[in-house]
Write a structure and sequence with these properties.
This protein is mainly alpha-helical. It has one domain: lambda repressor-like DNA-binding domains (434 Repressor (Amino-terminal Domain), Orthogonal Bundle), CATH 1.10.260.40. It has helices at residues 6-12, 17-24, 28-35, 43-52; strands spanning 4-5, 60-61. Strands 1-2 form a two-stranded parallel ribbon. The mean pLDDT is 95.
């Protein structure tokens, strides 16, 4: 199975970083740091992302 970055999934879903940050209930800066690998997503956030992007959590490629 091909792994995709969360940024690629977000862009393919035509969502902004602000859209995803709002869905996760975090600031845009916090989301940006997570998307760029400067901090890690919590498991609960990964679950929300998998629902948001309609994909299995195992597809996420971490930077």
């Amino acid at each position: 199975m091909q792994k995709l970055s969360i940024a690629a999934l977000r862009i393919n879903s035509k969502m902004t970083q602000e859209d995803v940050a709002n869905a996760l209930g975090i600031t845009v800066l916090s989301y940006r740091n997570k998307e760029n690998g400067l901090s890690e997503f919590k498991f609960s956030e990964l679950l929300i992302l998998s629902e948001l992007f309609k994909c299995d959590i195992s597809i996420f490629k971490h930077p």
